[in-house]
Design goal:
The complex is a heterodimer. Chain A is about 55% helix and about 10% strand. By secondary structure, chain A is mainly alpha-helical. Chain A has a single domain, classed as Orthogonal Bundle (Arc Repressor Mutant, subunit A). The N and C termini of chain A lie far apart (about 40 Å). The relative contact order of chain A is 0.17. Chain B has one domain. Helix content of chain B is about 75%, strand content about 0%. The longest helix of chain B has about 50 residues. The radius of gyration of chain B is 21 Å and the shape is elongated. The chains are: A mainly alpha, B mainly alpha. Chains A and B meet through helix 2 and helix 3 of A and helix 2 of B.
Chain lengths: ~110, ~160
């Protein structure tokens, strides 16, 4: 995926981020995304599966069989190498922004101390 | 007796019928399942506030994903324009009346109200017709314990 596709939309970013720790089904992705965003970002089922389909089409995630004892109604997904690379580049982009804001003393915590 | 959470899940499963066909066919069962799990967890963790949060999100998604597909239908668009026109006329008349510029006769109010009624009912009837036509799909969107079937993938055009 070209670098110009960054920054990622919030739903894409949080779904990739949620899958970074291993394969998950839809509801686990939703919960993990909410937890990672400190409950500030809410993904509903339609946004979740619309984004999942786009990520499958892009080759950033893939569907897996899931654990042996999993509920057959669930579908499991995991990051592909391409997806990991995209997430990594997005994290680097964010880190670079934070570094710049620190250098300019724009962060409230930094400027107060 | 059906409890509130089951009722919520059933209502959501039925609303899914109005979502775009590709998304519904590929992920309808999972969406209904995920919503049911989410609203149950929200009730356990946050009570009524949690349930409201989940429904608010679901309704926002409904407006974003489901309604645009039906807005192209003349059965939705014509009444919407009609509703906007009659509401604007009624508001303008009320403002003019308050400012004593023009005192409209009573029958004018009756005409405006008569215009508003079909404008409100026809989109509802239209959506209900779509719902009824797709009624056979409800069985695959319910929260049954049957194993899921293989789904055709969504096309990119709907996403």
């Amino acid at each position: 995926m070209p670098r110009s596709d960054l920054p990622l939309p919030p739903a894409t970013f949080f779904i990739l981020f949620a899958l970074a720790t291993g394969e998950k089904h839809g509801y686990a992705i939703m919960r993990e995304a909410r937890s990672l965003s400190d409950h500030r970002f809410q993904i509903g089922p339609a946004t979740l599966y619309t984004t999942v389909q786009r990520l499958l089409d892009s080759g950033w995630i893939e569907e897996t069989r899931g654990p042996e004892d999993s509920d057959p109604r669930r579908r499991y997904y995991r990051l592909t190498r391409q997806g990991k690379s995209t997430l990594h580049r997005e994290m680097e982009r964010m880190e670079a922004l934070v570094r710049k804001s620190k250098a300019l003393k724009l962060r409230p915590m930094e400027s107060q101390s | 007796m059906i409890d509130t959470m089951q009722l919520s899940s059933r209502i959501y499963a039925r609303l899914l019928v109005l979502y775009p066909g590709d998304l519904r066919r590929a992920y309808g069962t999972e969406m209904a399942f995920v919503f049911a799990e989410d609203i149950e967890a929200a009730r356990r963790e946050g009570g009524l506030r949690g349930v409201i949060r989940v429904w608010r999100c679901a309704l926002a998604e409904f407006l974003r994903f489901a309604l645009p597909g039906h807005a192209s239908s003349p059965f939705i668009r014509v009444p919407a324009v009609w509703f906007a026109f009659s509401t604007a006329t009624l508001t303008a008349e009320m403002l003019m009346s308050r400012c004593r510029w023009w005192n409209a006769p009573t029958f004018f109010h009756a005409v405006c109200a008569a215009l508003l009624l079909p404008a409100l009912t026809s989109p509802t009837v239209s959506l209900a017709a779509v719902w009824a036509c797709r009624g056979q799909e409800l069985t695959s969107l319910g929260l049954s314990d049957a194993p899921r079937t293989e789904h055709a993938p969504c096309s990119k055009s709907t996403i």
